[in-house]
Design goal:
The strands form two sheets. The protein has a two-stranded antiparallel sheet with strand order 1-2. A two-stranded antiparallel ribbon has the order 3-4. The chain has two domains: 151 residues, Jann2411-like fold (Orthogonal Bundle), CATH 1.10.3300.10; 31 residues. It is mostly helical. It contains eight helices and four strands. The termini are far apart. The structure holds zinc ion (2 copies). One zinc ion binds next to loops.
Length: 197
């Protein structure tokens, strides 16, 4: 459990939801899920050992799953959210099993049978992560960045749960810089800054 505030079976999978959702044009400004290579990177970061099949159909299936996950995140009622999550479990033919394997010798859940497609495996993993966050009362840790012009999703894993930006390096800093510039602008001739941006 060490290192995972939200649990080893929830946090990496929830990060996969975030990475996946952030590839959508609605979040990212352009289509970020252009090939299964993107999924390999994501899976590695999320400690997911399922391997994509590198087919066109898989990319399309993953985009559909991604858009569905974002719809779940934007759902305005718990009833709608539960219905969509249960539909994901159902359509992935999810059957929980406790397992160990070479890549992960600690007992853990798999949510889909071995021969399920990559898309269905990821459906099971991501639907479970969202359902667990809801059950744990931590669902509001999945939030949209508050920076102007940024629509990215992030998972707040800080202890106090008060993070506001997807990344303190970019969005958090951009805000601070903008505030600083505004203050400076008010106390100096605007001519000095007119050429900056
Ligand atoms: Zn496993
Ligand atoms: Zn942001």
């Amino acid at each position: 459990m060490a290192g995972y505030l939200l649990g080893v079976d929830v946090q990496p999978s929830a990060e996969m939801v975030v990475a996946l959702v952030n590839t959508s044009p609605a979040r990212n400004g352009e289509e970020g899920l252009v090939s299964s290579d993107v999924l390999v990177e994501m899976g590695r970061a999320a400690k997911i050992y399922y391997r994509p099949d590198f087919t066109e159909a898989e990319v399309l299936g993953m985009r559909r799953l991604r858009d569905r996950l974002d719809e779940i995140l934007r759902a305005d009622s718990q009833e709608a959210r539960f219905a969509m999550l249960n539909e994901l479990f159902y359509s992935a033919a999810a059957i929980p099993q406790i397992v160990t394997h070479a890549e992960d010798p600690n007992p853990h859940f798999h949510y889909t049978l071995e021969d399920a497609s990559y898309v269905d495996h990821i459906k099971g993993v991501t639907a479970y992560a969202l359902a667990r966050l809801i059950i744990m009362g931590e669902y509001d840790r999945l939030r949209t960045c508050e920076a102007d012009g940024c629509n990215r999703l992030f998972l707040d894993t800080t202890r106090n749960g008060k993070r506001r930006y997807c990344s303190s390096q970019t969005c958090g800093n951009r805000i601070h810089t903008a505030r600083y510039r505004n203050r400076k602008q008010q106390s100096r001739p605007s001519r000095t800054y007119a050429r900056r941006s």
